[in-house]
Amino acid sequence: MADQSFPFIVSNGPRVPRDPSIRTMIRKQAMKDVGIQRKSKRNPGRMTIRQSPVLEDAEVTFRRPAVIDEVASTDEAGRSSSRSSSGASASSLSVRSSSSPDSSSSSSSSSSESDLVEVDELSPPTHEKALQPQLRSPDQSLSGSIRNNLSFNRGYDLVRMKYGIDIPDLSILTNFNVNKGAIGNIWGNPARLATLMCVKRWSYLDYIPSRYGSTECLTITTECVLARMQEVLSPNGPSSPSTACNMLYGRALRSLQKAIAAEETNQDADVLGATQLLVLYELLDPTRDNFAWAHHMSGSARLITYRSSKRFTTDFEKALFSSHVGGMVSLGLVGNQHCYLEQPEWMDVYASTASESLFLTDRSPLAVNLRKTLFRVPGVWRDTGDWVNTHRLFDDKAPPALVKRCEDTHQDLVDWLEDYKNHTVSLSLVELPPEELQIRRELYGSALECSSIIKRVLATLKDDGRLQIEEQNQELVDKILDLQGKPVPPHSWLFTPHEIGVSEMFYHTTDQWREDTTQMFETDRKLAIRKRYNTWSNFLRASDHRDTRPYQH
User: Fold this and answer.
1) How many other C-beta atoms can be found within 10 angstroms of the C-beta atom of residue 25?
2) Fewer CB within a 10 Å sphere, N or C end of the chain?
3) How do residues 240-294 score in pLDDT, each as one tens digit?
4) Which region ranges are annotated with the description Disordered (predicted)?
5) Phi/psi of residue 60, each to 5°?
6) Beta-carbon neighbour count of residue 51 at 10 Å?
């Protein structure tokens, strides 16, 4: 029977006991006390499933893993060998990861996302699964393949665990419909951004994880966006103070300004990517005015035109351009200015992003063709306003070239609606994935909304047929309002308020547009055209300038 007696050890002061067996017993007793303490605290020394590791002073070098380069697009053709060598020897960035209760669950959900989609392919769609596509499009496969290889980019893994957010989950915020008109909807209740993280779209954000660490400006700006998103989702969290976001934002601005000032880097795709990320940051910051968003959008446009249309060859560059066009069209419409995208070379760049697929995606020819048509709307609207508000209004007729541009744009929208109808009929007997239904709703709503605008412009240029055109326009507006009572995608709050606002503006001004002016003198009739046009146009543009921000951080 083992001896149960407890041996007493008499301390000999600070001197180490000479007997080795006594020293062994002291160590065992000390470790026993440590074990009891850990058990009483539920063993915090061992990392649990919902606990992220705290990594101190982890060094992240600015480099891109070769394995992920095979999945992502190739390096830009214009990058010289000297710039590659300088990028490889760039200074490292120290990243410290903090424990976040949601970071582990976010990481595990993103890593197993592809498996969940494949299982869902075997089951019919249900209401609960409406947020996840059942059939994977080519764009989603690309995004999934990049994510599955994220483990090779240790730097991005660290920052993702630190903030508990995977940046491709924000892809819907780079969608065509997320533009100046959506800013007020986002700022009205930023917490709703959590509903967007399950909506996946093709975006340049899919390529950010593989490029993280390649350049300083892209790396810092990526962390800046993640920190801001974490603060939006948990504004009272101890690990997301506003001061930290502001400091990162300042560092990102300085790094980007430095890269733009350098001739050897200002045409780099990563620099354009960092600029686009700052545009995304402004969407997430309700404490700043919308001029900051417009400022970064304009800066992005200057970088794009400076690079020229011939430099958009890789998938990453095309994704950057595709995510940029919606905001530029919005700025043109609200700011009463031409959109450079209407130029043929930029039309061709956007057309090159198209990719055939059975179901609709943002890269489907049907989607690309509609948005190419929308590129021309700001210019036609602007030139019509110039004609109405100058002495040229009192000429016999509107400029024939301007009338033809307006008629061509209107006819392209009519033709697109017919193509859309043919597409829906061709899939009428097929079980549709949620993404198909979501994009249908977005495209159809955009087509109706812009058709109503272009019809008002056409009625201004062709006053003789105004009453007939206005009747057709009211039918379009009724269709837009009917859409609001039908099932909508989870992210519809980004664009449906704008559709409703445009429709209401048409109803408020319809009496003026139905006014019979045939008995007026010619000068009075021309002045009525001017008054009618300016009332509608100014009201519509002012509705996009309204700042609805009840949220105070």
Assistant:
1) 14
2) N
3) 457 888 899 999 999 999 999 999 999 999 999 999 999 999 988 877 767 889 9
4) 1-20, 28-144
5) -120, 115
6) 14
